[in-house]
Design brief:
InterPro entries: AB_hydrolase (IPR050471), AB_hydrolase_1 (IPR000073), AB_hydrolase_fold (IPR029058), Sig_transdc_resp-reg_C-effctor (IPR016032), Tscrpt_reg_LuxR_C (IPR000792), WH-like_DNA-bd_sf (IPR036388)
Oligomer: single chain
CATH topology of the largest domain: Rossmann fold
GO biological process, one term: regulation of DNA-templated transcription
Strand content: 5-15%
GO molecular function, one term: DNA binding
Order of helices and strands: EEEHHEHEHEHHHHEHEHHHHH
Protein name: Alpha/beta hydrolase family protein
Shape: globular
Strand order of the largest sheet: 1-2-4-3-5-6-7-8
CATH superfamily of the largest domain: Alpha/Beta hydrolase fold, catalytic domain
Organism: Pseudonocardia endophytica
Largest sheet: 8 strands, mixed
CATH architecture of the largest domain: 3-Layer(aba) Sandwich
Length: 338
């Protein structure tokens, strides 16, 4: 799949970049804290999530002001400003849509669904909360905000450890670099502070759309108790608790999360055949089985090392493996079967 990038303008002239991938009925995806449409698409694990969700529908994501491809503006972060972003996307679509919020995007999605029930077919809430003040003790919160503000590099590393403890080293390192590239320290701090301030408890009862709340049992960024608050407050909401500690939806068992979401949205849920690799991925897998490093794979295939690393990561994700050794063992098994 390839994504297309466009722009919408808010009433005050703020320019917001959005990306679409796939075709069919729209699924608007309200992302968490920091975003970058292009860099996120280049991360194999994150792109794999979006491609899996977009099969059979049109997935629409956007960068909030000050993040990624959306320029920063001289306006403070607020729930009202967040809803204006979503209003511009809704106007661009011009039709009802499924709505999925993740992390900080959850209270935003709740507030939108409560205020605009006619626009939302189904609502999915992953890894979120209803009251940001309950996420962590004040002293911890102040420490994290201060770290992000004074030492953005170290702050992003610390938050990656919280957000994706189950991810492999490459994904975690890429996530930390990604956060730093998404915005400057001031914007990162302002949006993180907003996430602690958001409170939509009083709006839960106003949500009318069929709702799925999904949460990982050991989520270190958003306590599982907040998922219960969301599910208990929205009439008829379904709560699904998945194992794992990662807050980021594309870390940990991403495939099971995708299956749960697609099933709820009424989209086909299929298991990819374990041998369904592209011809180039099969070449890379063969070289992995020979013990080649990413640099050696790049040299053998005439590609750059970053592309080789991306191929290996996608193979690992597609096959559901955690290591190169598992890829090598799988190649050996395929040879025996063949």
């Amino acid at each position: 799949m390839e994504q297309s990038v466009g722009r919408v303008a808010l009433a005050d002239g703020t320019s917001v970049a959005y990306a679409s991938v796939g075709s069919g009925r729209p699924l608007v995806y309200v992302m968490g804290w920091l975003t970058h449409l292009e860099l996120g698409w280049e991360l194999p694990a994150e792109r794999g999530l979006y491609e899996a969700l977009a099969t059979g529908c049109r997935l629409v994501r956007y960068d909030r002001a000050g993040c990624g491809l959306s320029p920063r503006v001289d306006r403070p972060a607020s729930l009202e400003f967040e809803l204006e972003h979503l209003a511009a996307i809704a106007a661009e679509l011009g039709e009802p849509f499924d709505l999925m919020g993740t992390s900080m995007g959850v209270p935003v999605a709740v507030a939108w669904a409560a205020a605009h029930p006619e626009t939302v077919r189904r609502l999915v809430l992953y890894g979120g909360w209803a009251r940001g003040d309950d996420l962590s003790p004040p002293l911890v919160r102040d420490h994290v905000l201060g770290l992000v503000e004074s030492h953005w590099g170290l702050g992003s590393d610390v938050l990656t450890d919280i957000f994706a403890p189950d991810a492999d080293a490459a994904t975690r390192a890429g996530s930390a670099r990604y956060q730093r590239a998404c915005s400057d320290a001031a914007t990162a701090r302002a949006l993180l502070a907003l996430s602690y301030d958001l409170d939509v408890v009083d709006r839960l009862a106003e949500v009318r759309a069929p709702t799925l709340v999904v949460h990982r049992s050991g989520d270190r960024a958003a306590p599982l108790a907040q998922a219960s608050v969301l599910a208990d407050g929205i009439a008829g909401a379904e709560l699904v608790v998945l194992p794992g500690r990662s807050h980021l939806p594309y870390a940990g068992d991403r495939d099971e999360l995708v299956r749960v979401v697609r099933r709820f949205l009424g989209l086909p849920v299929g298991r990819r055949r374990p041998d369904a690799l592209t011809p180039r991925q099969r070449e890379v897998a063969e070289l992995v089985s020979e013990g080649c490093t990413n640099r050696e794979i790049a040299t053998r295939l005439g590609i750059d090392e970053r592309s080789a690393e991306g191929h290996v990561e996608r193979i690992r994700l597609r096959l559901g493996f955690r290591s190169r050794a598992q890829i090598a063992a799988w190649v050996g098994t395929q040879r025996e079967v063949g």
